[in-house]
Design goal:
CATH topology: Collagenase (Catalytic Domain)
Strand content: 15-25%
Number of strands: 4
Distance between the termini: 26 Å
CATH superfamily: Metalloproteases ("zincins"), catalytic domain
CATH architecture: 3-Layer(aba) Sandwich
Order of helices and strands: EHHEHEEHHH
Radius of gyration: 17 Å
Structural class: alpha/beta
Largest sheet: 4 strands, mixed
Length: about 190
């Protein structure tokens, strides 16, 4: 199994000269925390998740996806454009595949799954609210986005519970603590 996540960090707008000093300090602290998590073994984590999930979508068992960490302004814009909800959200997933249509793949290229976009600002607020680390929240949101790319959805409570349980399993696969007990549903799409 080979998964290649393309990591992108779009956090330039976290700190602006017109911000009050207290906000600049908080934004600088958040940016430092993000720099720390940017060195995390994201490719290893995604590979472990794929081994655990065992998707059989690519004949060569090779996959690509993009993981973009951004700010509330950018994710709000994407949320408004693609989901018609003019507000920031924690994670968005843009799948390249229509998993209801049979795949006929005869390529030697990795299968492109799509894009996961996570707002670090929203993730930081949620981490504080749920009293766990920013790293834990970002991994939780990345796992949620990945499941969406693989065709999971949560149109009702039963499907949401199933998805959250699967996220718990994914986090445990890479050494994180399960979170779904007490964690509200993600506002992702």
């Amino acid at each position: 199994m080979d998964v290649t996540p393309h990591l992108q960090w779009h956090l330039e707008d976290l700190i602006t000269p017109t911000m009050p000093a207290a906000e600049q300090l908080a934004a600088a602290s958040l940016k430092a925390a993000v720099l720390e998590i940017s060195h995390a073994p994201w490719p290893d984590w995604f590979n472990q998740w794929f081994v655990y999930l065992g998707p059989d979508l690519s004949p060569m068992q090779a996959y690509e996806l993009s993981l973009r960490f951004t700010n509330d302004a950018e994710i709000r814009s994407l949320n408004a454009l693609y989901r018609h909800q003019d507000r920031p959200t924690d994670v968005l997933a843009f799948a390249c595949l229509d998993l209801e249509t049979p795949l006929i793949l005869e390529t030697e290229e990795p299968l492109e799954l799509g894009d996961i976009v996570i707002s670090v600002e929203t993730a930081a607020r949620q981490a504080t609210q749920h009293q766990h680390s920013l790293s834990q929240e970002l991994v939780w949101l990345a796992s949620h986005g990945l499941l969406h790319l693989l065709g999971w959805d949560h149109p009702d409570q039963a499907q949401l519970d199933r998805m959250l349980a699967q996220q718990d399993q994914l986090l445990q696969q890479i050494g994180f603590v399960a979170m779904s007990s007490g964690t509200p549903s993600s506002s992702s799409g």
